[in-house]
C-alpha cells in the first residue's frame, strides 16, 4: 500500500489518478495508524510551509513520518511536500520542517528584467546526474508553481535543476530513501507520468510493491 498524506491544502485526487495511470497498486490516505505499514509515502502539497507543518502536526504525522523515513521507507515529497523535507523555511517567518534533508527553504530571487516570483508555468528540468527519478539521464518539461526554493546543505542531493533568472535552482532531490520534486509531477503530462513510473519501478526493484 502506498500512503498519500492529505494536508488539506492539495488535491490528492489528481495524484491518485496519476498513480493509477502508471499502474500503481492501491493508494490510501495516510493516517497515524497505517503509515508504519506503507510500502512508500507520498507527501504532496501546495500553499504555505507553516500551514503544511501545522496540518501534519494536527494529524499526528510528524513523528510518524520521521520514524518511517528513519527505517528506510521511501518518501516522495511533491511541491510543498519537497520543501517540508527540509530543516526550516523562511516563508512568512521562521518555521521548522521535518528535518529529513539538510537545508532550508528560501525565497526565489529575480536578477533579470521581466522575471517574476512566483514562478508559475512550464519549466525545462535538467538532471544533474543519473538518478532514480531520472534513470535515463534525460529531463523534460514540468509544471511549477512556487515562490520559494530549497537550498540544500549538501549539493550532492540535487538530482535536477531549472534555470531561473540566471541561476540553477534545485527542483529535484534524492538522498537514500528520500525523494522530492518541486514541480507538480501529477500535472506534468507524459513527463510527469514517466517520473512517477520511475519511482514505482524503484519500489518494485526494492520488493516493496509488485
Salient structural properties:
alpha/beta; Rossmann fold; 210 residues; globular; four-stranded mixed beta sheet; nine-stranded mixed beta sheet
Structure notes:
There is one protein chain. By secondary structure, the chain is of the alpha/beta class. It has one domain: Class I glutamine amidotransferase (GATase) domain (Rossmann fold). The protein is 24% helix and 32% strand. The protein contains five helices and 13 strands. It has helices at residues 12-21, 49-58, 62-70, 80-84, 189-205; strands spanning 2-4, 27-29, 40-45, 75-79, 88-89, 95-96, 103-107, 119-127, 140-146, 148-152, 158-164, 167-175, 178-181. A nine-stranded mixed beta sheet has the order 2-1-3-4-13-12-11-8-9. Strands 6-5-7-10 form a four-stranded mixed beta sheet. The longest helix has 17 residues, at 189-205. It is globular and about 50 Å long.
Amino acid at each position: 500500500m502506498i500512503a498519500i498524506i492529505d494536508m488539506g491544502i492539495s488535491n490528492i485526487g489528481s495524484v491518485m489518478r496519476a498513480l493509477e495511470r502508471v499502474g500503481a497498486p492501491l493508494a490510501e490516505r495516510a493516517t497515524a495508524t497505517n503509515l508504519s505499514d506503507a510500502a512508500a509515502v507520498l507527501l504532496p502539497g501546495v500553499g504555505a510551509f507553516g500551514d503544511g507543518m501545522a496540518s501534519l502536526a494536527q494529524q499526528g504525522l510528524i513523528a510518524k513520518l520521521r520514524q518511517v523515513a528513519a527505517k528506510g521507507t521511501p518518501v516522495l515529497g511533491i511541491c510543498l511536500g519537497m520543501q517540508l523535507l527540509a530543516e526550516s523555511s523562511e516563508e512568512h517567518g521562521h518555521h521548522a520542517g521535518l528535518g529529513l534533508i539538510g537545508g532550508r527553504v528560501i525565497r526565489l530571487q529575480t536578477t533579470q528584467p521581466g522575471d517574476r516570483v512566483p514562478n508559475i508555468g512550464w519549466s525545462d528540468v535538467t538532471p544533474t546526474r543519473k538518478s532514480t527519478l531520472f534513470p535515463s539521464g534525460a529531463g523534460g518539461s514540468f509544471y511549477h508553481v512556487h515562490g520559494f526554493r530549497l537550498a540544500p546543505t549538501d549539493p550532492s542531493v540535487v538530482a535536477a535543476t531549472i534555470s531561473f533568472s540566471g541561476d540553477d535552482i534545485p527542483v529535484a532531490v534524492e538522498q537514500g530513501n528520500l525523494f522530492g520534486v518541486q514541480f507538480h509531477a501529477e500535472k506534468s503530462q507524459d513527463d510527469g507520468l514517466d517520473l512517477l513510473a520511475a519511482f514505482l519501478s524503484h519500489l518494485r526493484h526494492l520488493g516493496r510493491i509488485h
